[in-house]
């Protein structure tokens, strides 16, 4: 995939975080980049059952069958030159379906741990730049985004992915709250243009820095 992947991680269609991603996408497209907006809520993802099967080679998940689509999503993440994760914050954390998908990343942690022991930390996957756009209805709280960001950091690390930039927006309970802040909307489009330019500039050698 040569398009930016914007993963819409809210259970609510057309909610605040969906619109954050759309504004980013508008800017990226203006810069000449392709963007795929992919709603996580459309995917069937069974939650991890903690069975430990993925701790053994070949580190496959026993749930990856019978219509489960977690592996399909992981493939999209790995193929994209840049990933945007757009999500609301619920009780200082991430929504349930997104957390279920995150927990299914345990197999990458197991494989990475074995690779670290065998090869001195060499990753099995190419580096992946990731952006995070998080929205909270709560207008204040010094640690409002900390839990979500830590979860994302350690979800991404075994996949050789790292958050390179964030937009952390509070006081946005419904889309109308976002539209009432035109400067924020413009800034999100500008953010998309910036990263769209970087993706298109690096398209020939396959890197985004």
From TrEMBL:
Keyword Zinc: no
Superkingdom to which the source organism belongs: Bacteria
Keyword Flavoprotein carried by entry: yes
GO molecular function, one term: oxidoreductase activity
Keywords: Flavoprotein, FMN
Ranges for domain NADPH-dependent FMN reductase-like: 3-146
Pfam families listed in its UniProt record: FMN_red
Transmembrane segments: none
Record-linked PANTHER family: IRON-SULFUR FLAVOPROTEIN (PTHR43278:SF2), NAD(P)H-DEPENDENT FMN-CONTAINING OXIDOREDUCTASE YWQN-RELATED (PTHR43278)
Protein's name according to its UniProt entry: Flavodoxin family protein
Organism of origin: Desulfovibrio porci
């Amino acid at each position: 995939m040569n398009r930016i992947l914007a993963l819409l991680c809210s259970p609510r269609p057309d909610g605040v975080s969906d619109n954050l991603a759309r504004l980013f996408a508008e800017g990226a497209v203006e810069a000449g980049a392709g963007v795929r907006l992919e709603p996580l809520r459309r995917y069937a993802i069974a939650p991890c059952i903690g069975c430990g099967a993925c701790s053994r080679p070949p580190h496959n998940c026993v749930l990856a069958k019978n219509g489960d689509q977690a592996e399909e999503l992981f493939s999209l993440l790995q193929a994209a030159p840049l990933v945007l994760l757009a999500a609301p914050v619920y009780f200082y954390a991430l929504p349930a379906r997104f957390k279920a998908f995150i927990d299914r990343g345990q197999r990458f942690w197991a494989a990475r741990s074995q690779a670290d022991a065998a090869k001195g930390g060499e990753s099995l996957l190419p580096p992946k730049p990731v952006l995070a756009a998080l929205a909270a209805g709560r207008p204040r709280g010094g640690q409002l985004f900390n839990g979500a960001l830590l979860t994302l950091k350690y979800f991404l690390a075994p996949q050789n992915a790292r958050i390179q930039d964030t937009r952390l927006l509070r006081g946005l309970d419904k889309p109308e709250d976002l539209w009432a802040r035109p400067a924020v909307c413009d800034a999100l489009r500008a953010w998309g243009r910036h990263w769209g330019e970087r993706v298109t500039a690096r398209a020939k050698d396959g890197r985004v820095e």
